């Protein structure tokens, strides 16, 4: 689980630990070792939960993480990436409303985490996901990354970085059909979730459409656990409905 220290990622870790078929969870994020929530869970689940630090924008960190997992387990059945960025006050990163607000540094920051990190995770974890049992590589995307569904404009770097992620996942899925036929690759839209990422924009959310992290985690994990390899390369919402590219 990448992006495990807060929001949907943390909720997924909690949910995974309730599922008897899950023997071990690797919870990784940039601040994972500083997370009180993860450390509390780890103290109660000493054998089942491993907390690891990784900056998924750095390929060397991803390589190190893959090696650490490989030292303990020869295979993974699920790899889920929930790390993503829409805004960052500390770095003055916010969704662009007008073309004049597009900035090279912001584009690079969002592409590095939202697009480059998922495909680099795929690159280095494919050997652990390629085996004779069903496996799934899933990365959280966003409906606003759909080119066909873009009716409002704006949010240039977030939309484009998520669209790039979608293309990476789709392309990875095609190659995996040949190299890892038991692997399902999915881009997943969680819906608007009550996390720090959506906080500044929640006033515009339709009533009943702001979901709790636990609700989203349960529905996304149900997709991850049940979708067969024949569904690989799809872009799905939390409820299983298809989203156009």
How far the N terminus sits from the C terminus, by CA atoms, comes to 25 Å
Number of strands: 6
Using only C-alpha atoms, the radius of gyration works out to 17 Å
Number of helices: 6
Name of the top-level CATH class: Alpha Beta
Characterization of this structure:
The protein is an alpha/beta fold and 245 residues long. It has one domain (7-237): 3-Layer(aba) Sandwich (Rossmann fold), CATH 3.40.50. Helices cover 40% and strands 13% of the residues. The chain contains 6 helices and 6 strands, in the order αβαβαβαβαβαβ. It has helices at residues 7-16, 36-44, 59-72, 104-129, 156-179, 213-226; strands spanning 25-29, 49-53, 78-81, 135-140, 183-189, 234-237. The chain has a 4-stranded parallel sheet with strand order 3-4-5-6, sandwiched between helices. The chain starts with 6 loop residues before the first helix and ends in an 8-residue tail after the last strand. 41% of the residues are buried.
């Amino acid at each position: 689980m990448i992006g495990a220290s807060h929001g949907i990622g943390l909720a997924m870790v909690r949910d995974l630990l309730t599922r008897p078929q899950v023997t071990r969870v690797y919870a990784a994020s940039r601040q994972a070792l500083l997370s009180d929530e993860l450390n509390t869970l780890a103290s109660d689940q000493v054998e089942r939960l491993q907390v690891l630090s990784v900056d998924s924008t750095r390929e060397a960190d991803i390589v190190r993480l893959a090696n650490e997992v490989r030292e303990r387990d020869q295979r993974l059945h699920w790899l889920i990436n929930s790390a993503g960025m829409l805004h960052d006050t500390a770095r003055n990163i916010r969704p662009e409303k007008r073309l004049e607000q597009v900035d090279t540094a912001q584009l690079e920051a969002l592409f590095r985490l939202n697009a480059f990190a998922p495909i680099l995770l795929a690159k280095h974890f494919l050997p652990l996901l390629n085996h004779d049992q069903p496996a799934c590589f899933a990365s959280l995307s966003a409906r606003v990354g759909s080119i066909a569904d873009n009716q409002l404009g704006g949010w240039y770097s977030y939309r484009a970085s998520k669209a790039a992620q979608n293309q990476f996942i789709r392309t990875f899925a095609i190659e995996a059909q040949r190299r890892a036929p038991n692997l399902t690759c999915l881009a997943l839209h969680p819906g608007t979730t009550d996390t720090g990422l959506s906080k500044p924009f929640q006033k515009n959310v339709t009533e009943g459409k702001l979901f709790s992290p636990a609700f989203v985690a349960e529905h996304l994990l149900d997709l991850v656990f049940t979708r067969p390899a024949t569904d690989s390369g799809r872009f799905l919402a939390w409820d299983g409905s298809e989203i156009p590219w």
